[in-house]
Amino acid sequence: MKVSFNKPCHTGLEESYVIQAIKNNKLSGDGPFNKKCAEFLTSYFGSDTKAVYITPSCTAASEMASIILNMEKGDEVIMPSFTFTSTANAVAVYGGVPVFIDVRPDTMNIDENLIEQAISKKTKAIVPVHYAGVGCEMDKILYIAKKYGLAVIEDNAQGLFAYYKNKPLGSFGDMSAVSFHETKNVIAGEGGALVINSDNIKERAEIIREKGTDRSKFFRGEVDKYSWIDKGSSYLLGELGAAYLLAQLEKGTEITNNRLASWHFYYDALEDLEKKGFLRRPVVPSACTHNGHIFYILLDCLKTRESLREHLILREISAVSHYVPLHSSKAGLSFGRTASKMDVTDAHSEMLLRLPMYYGLGDDEKNRVVDGINSFFI
Ligand SMILES: Cc1ncc(COP(=O)(O)O)c(C=O)c1O
Fold first, then answer.
1. Is any atom of ligand 1 closer than 6 Å to the C-beta of 280?
2. What pLDDT shows up at residue 143?
């Protein structure tokens, strides 16, 4: 049987919540399940978090962040090139310029030592992306942001239930964006959240999310009619998705522990191959507690990575590459600019191979993956 790369997470609690959502006769956004998800996350992120808005995706949450920042033509946002298109698109759709810098060779996270030289008069924000749920070097990033008066928007698509210095990823920046896409640890099919860590943007976020209206205030009885107040769009998640999501959030620790067990299985099983110089395993700095989102290996070059990937396909094992660099992509070249050498991004994106990883990944499957890799090298 095939070893899939991903299987959407399903814990068993979801069915009853989704049925409850149907029975509630309220399927649009901000019903009881949305509220419970937002409450869960507000309490999870801790006292620095002022509000959490459940959104249809992390992409939508990132776009909301751009509207909140009043992103305009020519505004620059510093980000890694090794990331998903949404990180850059959220800036480009408002005329902003993604300014790409290289990543650290150990974590594949934005290289904090390259940020300062990428800052210009037009720089508005820094977007650290917590790759694989391993935290970026937030102390230094926040220090630079403060020094230059820049906003920090964490792209925390992959980092729920992961920590930097024991504080949740997503609670450091002015805002952060989470993904609940079915490839993530905790899912809603499609879904996301915008986490607001600053009191003065909370109210504006609520309006932008409701098509630029004060409808949320109206529903709370704070105004007698609602009207068009600001720019905005439809950034609400329906109740069916939120019901599935609440079940997942409540099982978040179990889901994370299950993935971490698989992650550590791979980590231990591949130690010998690393010692022999065939591959490199992920590096997790001591300040970071990760969430087992991704297990990747780094091979010595593209040719080895592709031969291994094909070798695994022959054994019905699906392992995949990750992130084609944005700085040299068609859209990256036309909408962005590059502000550092890209040696690590260029090399590692050709060397990286992600192994099957999902909630409930069985011992048989894991052993087949490890045997498959061993049989390629030895
Ligand atoms: C780093 C990063 N940012 C943003 C996204 C977009 O997430 P969504 O599909 O929820 O919009 C992804 C999706 O994989 C991602 O990896």
1. no
2. 98
